[in-house]
């Protein structure tokens, strides 16, 4: 608009701007779905390590199923077993602390991990915590939060991990509270450096009331470049 506060529609096209055929329609995810009998047979074949390409060739007689569809079908249902295996492994590794974050309905939201050496390192250098997050580190798009400190040699030492299925405040808050629970030296932390995520920063501000909150220079400069 002339005042610069609104968007104005200048042109409207009421026709498809892409190929619109029966063939492309059949490739849509909803159209590629297998019926229940075919799905169960396919699951059993994949469970027995059948060649996915050969399975796809057979299914293509009646469906447009893709190799990615077969991969997703093979992966379906593994998450619970994989999570239990991961928890067992981490608990038995270096006297590790493992704690799950779940909803009231017991839906998985996060996994916190810290071994004995990490706890000792944080206890030795608690003055400043660096918190960084790496997004989509798993096939389910989970984020990995990393807690780190700087040792007496000026080197970065990781002191905790948390894998989160959500970036919502209750999950981040639970993560920080678990960290405090196993690290009584948290009250000695004077400074916390994070990225620009407001939810994350607000949680640390609430949980570490006597600490100063800084923002990472790298993230600031990257934001300016993007803007």
Automatic annotation (TrEMBL):
Q: Which residues form the ZSWIM1/3 RNaseH-like domain?
A: 90-213
Specify one Pfam family.
ZSWIM1-3_RNaseH-like
What domain of life does the UniProt record list for this protein's source? Eukaryota
Q: What is the protein's given name?
A: ZSWIM1/3 RNaseH-like domain-containing protein
């Amino acid at each position: 608009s002339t005042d610069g506060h609104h968007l104005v529609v200048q042109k409207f096209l009421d026709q498809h701007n892409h190929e619109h055929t029966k063939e492309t329609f059949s490739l849509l995810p909803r159209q590629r779905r297998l019926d229940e009998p075919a799905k169960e047979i396919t699951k059993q074949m994949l469970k027995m390590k059948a060649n996915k390409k050969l399975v796809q060739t057979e299914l293509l007689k009646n469906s447009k199923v893709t190799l990615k569809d077969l991969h997703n079908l093979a992966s379906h249902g593994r998450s619970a077993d994989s999570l239990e295996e991961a928890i067992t492994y981490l608990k038995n590794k270096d006297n590790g602390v493992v704690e799950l974050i779940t909803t009231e309905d017991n839906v998985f939201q996060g996994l916190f991990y810290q071994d004995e050496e990490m706890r000792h390192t944080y206890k030795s250098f608690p003055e400043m915590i660096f918190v960084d997050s790496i997004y989509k580190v798993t096939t389910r798009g989970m984020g990995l939060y990393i807690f780190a400190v700087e040792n007496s040699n000026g080197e970065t030492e990781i002191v905790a991990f948390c894998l989160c299925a959500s970036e919502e405040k209750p999950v981040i808050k639970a993560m920080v509270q678990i960290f405090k629970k196993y690290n009584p030296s948290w009250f000695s932390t004077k400074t916390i450096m994070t990225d620009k995520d407001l939810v994350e920063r607000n949680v640390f501000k609430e949980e570490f009331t006597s600490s100063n909150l800084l923002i990472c220079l790298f993230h600031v400069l990257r934001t300016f470049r993007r803007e």
